[in-house]
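Dihydroorotase, mitochondrial: structure, please.
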Amino acid sequence: MELTITQPDDWHLHLRDGDLLQAVVPHSASNFRRAIVMPNLKPPVTTTSAAITYRESIMKALPYGSSFDPLMTLYLTDKTHPDEIKLARESGVVYAVKLYPAGATTNSQDGVTDLFGKCLPVLEEMVKQNMPLLVHGEVTDPCIDVFDREKIFIETVLQPLIQRLPQLKVVMEHITTMDAVKFVESCKEGFVGATVTPQHLLLNRNSLFQGGLQPHNYCLPVLKREIHRQAIVKAVTSGSKKFFLGTDSAPHERKRKETSCGCAGIYSAPVALSLYAKVFDEAGALDKLEAFTSFNGPDFYGLPRNSSKITLKKAPWKVPEVFSFSFGEIIPMFAGETLQWQPFFK
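Here you go.
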């Protein structure tokens, strides 16, 4: 059995920099035509000039002949100026601005501490420039249970934001709860969308603890209850245009995952398309896969759909146990397991 679809894009990707960038970018470039690249480096990508420099580094790391196009983002801070949004739009390489609540996830310490008090002029300029805001949707109050942080963020930040700036395009990244599904479905189409990862479609929070602590299933936002996973699967396989592919593939060296205080992030780039196909196949919704992987994202961003094609074949293959590099090892999602779908390029 095989299925030919328009080549997908990845609307939420971490490529890192330095040796990690060199190691992982071929995996994304071999599967996806474009990707929205996250700006949470050290130091973060807070300016258009820094985004241009980072893009140049990515282009140099691509395999020879690759047509992969990295779409850059800016890291929103309390000090971001509205003029930077104008520069970003004029650059032709920056496509969105990322909101990290300070302390929410990897390298988010420079993120926003008071969105309405310190960033409103920037958000208003983003409306003028039609520049989407990409949201890591979790509150960081230590008094809030980690499993409730997305729900509380929707209630206290996202709903007030949409009410205040209804023309602002917002992507709620890597949604993890039925609360997020309901919120996105309630919003006006074309103004609020959501990316969905393979892990939040296939795993629940039991996957963190089965057989012992599983560091390679640890990500932020953290995996949730099974009822939330089922709600997300139902949403993405429904045919709704509001949900689109965003792997949140986030590589870390093995030694930084398997340690006393391990990093958050799942490396899914090498297996993502196989896993999304698995989800849609098991839901009896393969006819909806192409829209989710290849149409909804570019349509939301106002970009053309890709003309290139890929073929997904039902051809069992075993995921490598590990990817080894000169600097260390990276463990992929579903390491050592057999997957049924495999992408091939025309």
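Notes: The CA atoms of residues 129 and 161 lie 17 Å apart.
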